[in-house]
Amino acid sequence: MTDHFNERLKEILVGKVTSDTAVKIYDEWGQNGYDQSVSAQAYIGPEVTAKTIASLYDKSERDTIQLLDIGAGTGLVGEQLRKFGFSKIDALEPAGGMLASARNKNLYRNYHNHYLKKDTLIDANGGNIVLTMKQLYHDVPGYSESMRSLIKDFENSGKWEKKLESQFPNYFEDALGVTYVFKLL
Ligand SMILES: C[S@@+](CC[C@H](N)C(=O)[O-])C[C@H]1O[C@@H](n2cnc3c(N)ncnc32)[C@H](O)[C@@H]1O
């Protein structure tokens, strides 16, 4: 089973499948050992993301801060955020199978089962967006350009300001990771 999903993951990583197909793969994976597969491959993305978020807020204020975990999956980031004292966390995840696993862990206040929408962050002015991903995604045709141009567009239009871009080793096995912090203006 793990091999099956690792093969599908490679298809996602090289941009071979549409976004809907990728979500369908996650949908099945969420119900079939996603957590076990990624922990076997030393996946530190959720921990790095939570540490970055924790670095933005003093310990005393963390339980008042509202967070939205976009692409929450089975809740791995939520688990790490709770360790740092955050409790007002909502999950947004289009793959029902992933979200069902997150629900079982009882980590989030609300569960939104849909894609990120254009107006999702409309009331988040003054807040931060923390984005962590495999550095390799910057080399996936289509994804890289759309990601970079989205970031540039938002910066140029004064919608957000980049506060951090930091590379780190061993994001997933030996792949480099990158984490960004953007302040919503
Ligand atoms: C690599 S998984 C990461 C899941 C989780 N954050 C973790 O670290 O284990 C990416 C997740 O993003 C979700 N996703 C894909 N497209 C999305 C979109 N447009 N809006 C929100 N989530 C999306 C996928 O369904 C998948 O669960």
Give an overview of the whole structure.
The protein is 41% helix and 23% strand. The model has no long low-confidence stretch (mean pLDDT 89). It is built from seven helices and six strands, in the order ααααβαβαββαββ. The chain has a single domain, classed as Rossmann fold (3-Layer(aba) Sandwich). With 185 residues, it is an alpha/beta fold. The strands form two sheets. It has a three-stranded parallel beta sheet with strand order 1-2-3, covered by helices on one side. It has a three-stranded antiparallel beta sheet with strand order 4-6-5, sandwiched between helices. The structure holds S-adenosylmethionine (SAM). The site of S-adenosylmethionine has 18 residues, from helix 2, helix 4 and helix 5. S-adenosylmethionine (SAM) binds next to helix 2, helix 4 and helix 5.
Instruction: Name the structural class.
Output: alpha/beta
What is the radius of gyration computed over CA atoms, rounded to a whole number of angstroms? 16 Å
Specify the number of helices: 7
Shape type? globular
Secondary-structure element sequence? Answer: HHHHEHEHEEHEE
**What would CATH call the class?**
Alpha Beta
Q: Strand order within the widest sheet?
A: 1-2-3
Mind summarizing the main beta sheet?
3 strands, parallel
- Strand percent estimate: 15-25%
CATH homolog superfamily: Vaccinia Virus protein VP39
Mean pLDDT: 89
CATH topology: Rossmann fold
Ligands bound to this protein structure: S-adenosylmethionine
The CATH architecture can be named as: 3-Layer(aba) Sandwich
Percent range for helical residues? 40-55%
Number of strands: 6
